[in-house]
Design the sequence.
């Protein structure tokens, strides 16, 4: 069906919900897996802990070394937090906005990330950093590699909350074609091994209202940074 301006009409029956079965595992790379709905049973523990972290270390938009303000707002918890400013990208033990250590990583965060890593085949995952990204409609993350972590042998575990997003999963060069993978509230993705240095990004967030999180997407990434 088309509108009279020739744009297709799609019935967005699943907006803001997971159209996939919780418990479903999708392999998106040699050592990368989407665990659909994996975080849902943990949310009653995770969300209050997340609110407390954001009280102590509120979201803020950071500037890249090139001088651009990121559309995604960031915070962190754990021993190390990822930051950027005009002088570069790095992990820091303190929040540059307050000079204080980042809030501790709650036990529920670590336990959930370890359980997800284990399910994807990575035992003994010990995250010391959790980067918290907030996307409002229009916010995006352009294709990049994550290589500020000291060890590249540990996986990265990510948790999506709130509005759905289209994740781009590319190759080892920026120009390689990328897969598009929709991520929904409660989905976990685990990346490791040979996939750890693949380019990836997030397309501009579409407007919407999530019943629990409102008009935003929050993504947490658990990393072994130090
Ligand atoms: C794939 N965040 O914070 S999560 C980031 O949804 C970041 O906020 C995106 O990319 C987000 O750096 C994507 C996942 C992610 C993290 C690290 C990866 C995907 C990855 C490392 C290698 C390959
Ligand atoms: Fe990344």
Sequence:
């Amino acid at each position: 069906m088309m509108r009279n301006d020739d744009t297709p009409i799609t019935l967005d029956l699943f907006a803001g919900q997971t159209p996939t079965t919780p418990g479903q595992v999708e392999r998106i790379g040699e050592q990368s897996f989407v665990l659909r709905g994996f975080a849902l049973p943990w949310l009653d523990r995770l969300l209050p802990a997340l609110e407390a972290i954001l009280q102590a270390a509120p979201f803020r938009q950071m500037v890249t070394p090139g001088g651009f303000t990121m559309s995604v707002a960031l915070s962190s918890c754990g021993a190390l937090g990822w930051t950027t400013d005009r002088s570069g990208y790095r992990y820091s033990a303190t929040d540059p906005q307050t000079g204080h250590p980042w809030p501790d990583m709650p036990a529920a965060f670590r336990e959930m990330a370890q359980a997800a890593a284990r399910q994807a085949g990575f035992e003994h995952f010990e995250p010391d950093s959790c980067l918290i990204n907030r996307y409002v409609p229009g916010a995006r993350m352009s294709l990049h590699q994550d290589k500020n972590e000291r060890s590249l042998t540990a996986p990265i575990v990510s948790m999506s909350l709130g509005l759905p997003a289209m994740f781009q999963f590319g190759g080892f060069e920026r120009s390689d074609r990328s897969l598009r993978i929709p991520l929904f509230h409660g989905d976990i993705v685990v990346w490791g091994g040979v996939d750890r240095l693949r380019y990836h990004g997030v397309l501009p967030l579409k407007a919407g209202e999530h019943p629990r999180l409102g008009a935003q997407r929050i993504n947490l990434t658990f990393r072994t940074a130090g």
Q: What stands out?
A: The pocket of fe (iii) ion (ligand 2) is lined by residues 144, 146, 200 (CB under 6 Å). Residues 43-56 form the longest helix (14 residues). The longest strand covers residues 69-78. Residues 21 and 36 are 7 Å apart (CA to CA).
